[in-house]
């Protein structure tokens, strides 16, 4: 079912300083991607934003008119889809069939459908296979919902981030504003609650805390406080 050429990670010559594998899971707005990106920069690791892969698949379904509730049709679509993740001058980018979709995949339209698309086992198996391939040489930080529990259960260090709903809504509103998306608090909150519900309730690799994950509540911590906590754990675990 899987086409290993569907995705390519174009890595921009970054020297990996160690072979550690770090998994960061948690709900939307808990701060995973910010910390994963900064940790990767600090430790010379590759950052793989697995949510961006599901978002790109969702955008493709929207563009191609593929029914987001039809897992088989989505899997078939992915066989002919090229999703690339990369980094240039410290900035992450995402391409879909050669088109730069870095900003478009963050749109509210994609956000409201991505949990439906990512709920299909047929879609998840392709993504999981590719994520494992990208991580196989080590020196990586992956963030998502099922990295520590399902994609890489043997990861060296696992984190689970959480934060109060109101704090997560504030962060998403600020992010949307900075990206130029007009959204109101109530709809962002409603969508976040629904996405949390779908991501946690799905049968295939739901969002949950891995038994051996370090749980961090980021509600009242600054970015640099979270980063130094996480970096400390990674350095201690990996010597
Ligand atoms: O991290 P994010 O908000 O960009 O992720 C978008 C959606 O993708 C999220 O609602 C659920 C899905 N996702 C997933 O199911 N598994 C992952 N490893 C990453 C994301």
Quickly list its features.
four-stranded mixed β-sheet, single chain, alpha/beta, disordered N terminus, binds 2'-deoxycytidine-5'-monophosphate, 239 residues, five-stranded parallel β-sheet, Rossmann fold
Task: Give the CA-CA distance, first to last residue.
Answer: 39 Å
- As residue ranges, the low-confidence spans are 1-6, 9-16
What is the H level of CATH, i.e. the homologous superfamily?
A: P-loop containing nucleotide triphosphate hydrolases
Q: Overall 3D geometry?
A: globular
Please indicate the count of domains: 1
Helix/strand/pairing class, anyone?
alpha/beta
Q: Which fold does the CATH topology refer to?
A: Rossmann fold
Bound molecules: 2'-deoxycytidine-5'-monophosphate
CATH class category = Alpha Beta
Q: Any guess at the CATH architecture?
A: 3-Layer(aba) Sandwich
What is the percent of helical residues?
A: 40-55%
What fraction of residues sit in β-strands? 15-25%
Mean of the pLDDT scores? 92
How many helices?
9
Q: Evaluate the radius of gyration.
A: 17 Å
What strand line-up does the widest sheet have?
A: 3-7-2-8-9
Q: What are the secondary-structure elements, in order, as H or E? A: EEHEHHEEEHHEHEHHEH
């Amino acid at each position: 079912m899987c086409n290993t050429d569907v995705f390519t990670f174009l890595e921009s010559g970054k020297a990996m300083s160690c072979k550690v594998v770090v998994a960061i899971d948690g709900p939307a707005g808990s701060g995973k991607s910010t910390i994963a990106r900064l940790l990767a920069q600090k430790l010379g690791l590759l950052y793989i934003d697995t949510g961006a892969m599901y978002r790109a698949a969702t955008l493709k379904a929207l563009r191609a008119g593929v029914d987001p509730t039809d897992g088989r049709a989505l899997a078939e679509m992915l066989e002919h889809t090229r999703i690339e993740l990369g980094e240039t001058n410290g900035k992450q980018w995402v391409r879909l069939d050669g088109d730069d979709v870095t900003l478009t995949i963050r749109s509210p339209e994609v956000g409201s459908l991505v949990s439906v698309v990512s709920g299909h086992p047929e879609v998840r198996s392709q993504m999981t296979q590719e994520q494992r391939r990208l991580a196989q040489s080590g020196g990586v930080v992956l963030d998502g919902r099922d990295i520590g529990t399902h994609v890489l259960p043997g990861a060296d260090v696992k984190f689970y981030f959480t934060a109060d709903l109101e704090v997560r809504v504030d962060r998403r509103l600020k992010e949307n504003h900075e990206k130029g998306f007009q959204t109101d608090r109530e709809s962002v909150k409603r969508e976040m609650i629904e996405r949390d519900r779908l991501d946690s309730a799905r049968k295939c690799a739901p969002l949950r805390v891995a038994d051996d994950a370090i749980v961090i509540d980021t509600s009242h911590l600054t970015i640099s406080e979270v980063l130094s906590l996480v970096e400390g754990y990674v350095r201690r675990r990996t010597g």
